[in-house]
Design goal:
With about 90 residues, the chain is mostly helical. It is rod-shaped and about 95 Å long.
Length: about 90
């Protein structure tokens, strides 16, 4: 008897191979322990997905922060140049 995976194929592609194999082994089991293990397995898979989403958000935030810092450094340099030019004009008068 072939059981359908509870998770779509494309969702399993980004899961570790060992976790997929564990899910396949759990799917082959029968009885009350199988239901408990499936529930625990689903929680682990959800946790992994949540952590990956969080990691992705953190990486995006870091990228944005790096870009913001570059803009701030540029603004600081331009402001310093303007300050120096104004000091030169004031002292030259």
């Amino acid at each position: 008897m072939l059981q359908q995976s509870r998770f779509p194929e494309n969702d399993l592609e980004d899961m570790p191979r060992e976790l997929i194999e564990l899910g396949e082994q759990i799917a082959k089991l029968s009885g009350s322990r199988s239901a408990e293990l499936e529930e625990a397995y689903a929680k682990v898979v959800d946790s992994i997905r949540r952590r990956r989403r969080i990691l992705s958000l953190v990486q995006e935030a870091l990228s944005q922060l790096r870009l913001d810092i570059k803009y701030l450094m540029f603004d600081l340099e331009v402001t310093r140049r303007e300050r120096d030019e104004l000091r030169q004009q004031i002292s030259g008068e």
